Amino acid sequence: MASIQNQIVLITGASSGIGAACAHFFAEAGARLILVARRLERLEELAAALKTQFGTETLLLQLDVGDRPRVESTLSALPKDWAAVDILVNNAGLSRGLDKLHEGQVQDWEEMIDTNVKGLLYVTRAILPGMVQRDRGHVINIGSIAGHQPYPGGNVYCATKAAVKSLTECLKLDLLGTAVRITSIDPGMVETEFSEVRFHGDGDRARKVYQGLTPLTAEDIADVVLYCATRPAHVNINDVILMPVAQASTTMAHRRP
Ligand code: NDP
Ligand code: 8X3
């Protein structure tokens, strides 16, 4: 296992779920963390916990990844000792609604596209040139099985994750000849705030998504992210698809009665 002690890891969407779990795993492994999200208080709580538990150094950025001018101005002005990012975890993302496309809310579509696709692109465009210049680095995109298999009502969310899949594959081509690595991690059902956000805060509807089965946890995903990041420098894990044992596809899950 390659060490990531003192490496700089930038994680988007670190205020909750998979991003927050990645922050814990990388902190425990000795990394320095740049944590990005819109909810600064959440990041502050997380940073304080990581400082106490592991002595982790953090830089907190309150940022909407879909806000291109702010992403560009913030990430181009990182303090000197934080600028050489070693690992970028493009995790910020969300789903909104589960409506048929012809009944969907345009506002929901825009939020998903702005965050999951444009946000990922803006952050990558700001961070990746430094990696290429230094000839070291690793971009880890959090995709989804939704990018591999469409499901009813998934329409725009599935399309955004299919875009992430395609961007990861294209980046593998673009980065050929450099030492920079690119990975996509594509989970099935993970119990986080994801479904609450999808259903606009309807907790009962969100809980039903995970009823009668054991979903993946945010920690299960962070474990795989850290595994991919700590392979020897010549090893690139292109894509990892993982789902709960009780899930067979986006539309098939086995639920206890
Ligand atoms: P959560 O809702 O728990 O976390 C989402 C994170 O993304 C939050 O930290 C949120 O922070 C951040 N975020 C959302 N929009 C923005 C934005 N515009 N700018 C910056 N940060 C933003 O969900 P998950 O942890 O489950 O989701 C993480 C990723 O995993 C997403 O890309 C999701 O699509 C993907 N995924 C999730 C699966 C699941 O079943 N849960 C399965 C497969 C993939 P804040 O609101 O503070 O900005
Ligand atoms: C999240 C998994 O199947 O709800 O990306 O779209 S799914």
What are the salient characteristics of this protein?
alpha/beta, binds 2-hydroxyethylsulfonic acid, SDR_fam, SDR family oxidoreductase, NAD(P)-bd_dom_sf, oxidoreductase, oxidoreductase activity, acting on the CH-OH group of donors, NAD or NADP as acceptor
Question: What is the percent of helical residues?
Answer: 40-55%
CATH architecture: 3-Layer(aba) Sandwich
Structural class: alpha/beta
Classify the fold: give the CATH topology: Rossmann fold
Task: Quickly name the level 1 CATH class.
Answer: Alpha Beta
Mean pLDDT: 98
Number of strands: 7
Order of helical and strand elements? EHEHEHEHEHEHHHE
Q: Please give the largest β-sheet.
A: 7 strands, parallel
Query: How many structural domains?
Result: 1
Task: Characterize the structure shown.
The structure is a single chain. The protein contains eight helices and seven strands; from the N terminus they run βαβαβαβαβαβαααβ. The radius of gyration is 18 Å and the shape is globular. The model has no long low-confidence stretch (mean pLDDT 98). It is an alpha/beta fold and 257 residues long. The chain has a single domain (8-242), classed as Rossmann fold (3-Layer(aba) Sandwich), CATH 3.40.50.720. A seven-stranded parallel β-sheet has the order 3-2-1-4-5-6-7, sandwiched between helices. Helices cover 42% and strands 14% of the residues. It has helices at residues 17-28, 40-54, 68-75, 106-134, 155-174, 194-198, 203-209, 218-229, and strands at 8-12, 32-37, 58-62, 87-90, 138-142, 181-187, 239-242.
